[in-house]
Structures are given as structure tokens and as C-alpha cells.
Amino acid sequence: MQISICYGEAINSILFQSKSYDGLVIGRSKKFGGTGGRMETFCIDSSVEQLSSINVTFGDYNGQVAIISLCFYTNLKKIYGPFGTILGASSVSIPIEDGVIVGFHGRGGTYLTAIGIFVAPKVNNLPSSEKKFNSLHSIQDPDYAPTQLEVNFYLFFFYHIQLVNQNSHAHFFSHKIVT
Questions:
Q1: Number of C-alpha atoms within 13 angstroms, CB side, residue 102?
Q2: What is the pLDDT of residue 13?
Q3: For 30, which DSSP code?
Q4: For residue range 129-158, what is the model confidence (pLDDT) as tens digits?
Q5: What is the pTM assigned to this prediction?
Q6: Which stretches make up the Jacalin-type lectin domain (predicted)?
Q7: Counting beta carbons within 10 angstroms of the beta carbon of residue 95, is it exposed (0 to 12), middle (13 to 18) or buried (19 or more)?
Q8: Less packed terminus of the chain by CB within 10 Å, N or C?
Q9: Does residue 92 contact residue 47 with C-beta atoms inside 8 Å?
Q10: Can you tell me the distance from the alpha carbon of 115 to that of 74, in angstroms, rounded to the nearest whole number?
């Protein structure tokens, strides 16, 4: 998985590219959020390392409710980030047990205002008949992106974090949806 984040004092945007367990590109996201900021990209070799947790810091930024920092943690105890500013804001951490983060979705204008994560079961937790499908098929077209139906078929849940501005204060809500 390759993750690119544009940020300054807040998160401007995020985009990602994911690969199957056999190394083939299976999805590229659109850019969620706005333009601007400094871009940093990091890669995770999914054959040995998986994202196990994400920390989201949010608050009011330039009169907007926004995600102001992101930090990613892996099963190998590596930390990517924090990207953005973490001072003076609220945060939420989403640890993932019995699964791995395989993708993101989001929303935003100038800054990223909502982020969600797609989580798939760990391959070693699947029955052998499902392990083959979990890598989505061997796709030769590098521009192929799975449809929502295909993604939901092999993913068993996703989290969504959205920021809500109430009385000029940032609040969040999060929910887990089982598919």
C-alpha cells in the first residue's frame, strides 16, 4: 500500500494505492480533500507489514472543522507521521483487531473533513477457500480499480469518521459498518 498525504498545519488531502497479496495494483483512490500543502508518500510492504491503527486529530482550523493530523501505526511497531499539527486538538485512535486496513475514503473541501478506512480480515484468519478471493483476482490492467460491489464483497467492515461543527467546536462521530 502506498499512501500520499498533503499537509501543512492541517491535512489538505490523502490518496492511496493498494496492491493484492501477490503484488498487483488493485486500486487507486481519487484524491480526498483539497490542494496545497507539502506532500509526503510512504509505502507499506503488505507481505510483511500491515496498518494496524490510525490516529486522527481534528479541530477548528481557519474557521473550518478539519482533520489536522493523521498518524499511522503498523503491526511491526512502525509509526508513519504524525502528518499535520497535533497541538490543541481532540483525537481519536482506531485500533484494528483481527483485520488489516486496506484502503481509505474521505471527503473535504480545502481541507480533509472526513476519513474512513476499509478493513479486510487477515488472510491467516480466513478459510482457505476465501484466501484466494481476498487478493481480488490476478488483474493484469494496472489502471483497474475494483468496483464498490467487489470491494464490499471481500471487505467485512469499514469505519467512517466525520467531523461535525457544533457551536464552533469540533466533534466527531465514528461508526463501524459490517458488510
A1: 27
A2: 94
A3: P
A4: 443 333 332 223 334 343 333 333 333 344
A5: 0.69
A6: 1-121
A7: exposed
A8: C
A9: no
A10: 18
Pairing relationship of beta strands 11-19 and 90-95 according to DSSP bridges: unpaired
| CA angle centred on 70, ends 79 and 177, rounded to 5° | 105
88-105 pLDDT tens trace: 667 888 777 777 777 777
Give the burial class of 72: count Cβ atoms within 10 A of its Cβ; 0-12 exposed, 13-18 middle, 19 or more buried.
Answer: buried
**Cell 480499480 maps to which residue?**
145
| Confidence at residue 71, expressed as pLDDT on a 0 to 100 scale | 94
Query: Facing residues of 31 across strands?
Result: none
Which whole-number Å values give the CA distances from 114 to 65, 127, 135, 154, 161, in the listed order?
A: 10, 34, 27, 23, 6
Domain ranges of the chain: 2-178
Please list the alpha-helical segments (H only) found in 2-139: 128-134
**Residue pair 171/163 in contact by the 8 Å Cβ criterion:** yes
Within 10 angstroms of residue 20's Cβ, the number of other Cβ atoms is: 17
Could you say which residues of the chain have pLDDT below 50?
125-179
Q: Are 69 and 81 in contact (CB under 8 A)?
A: yes
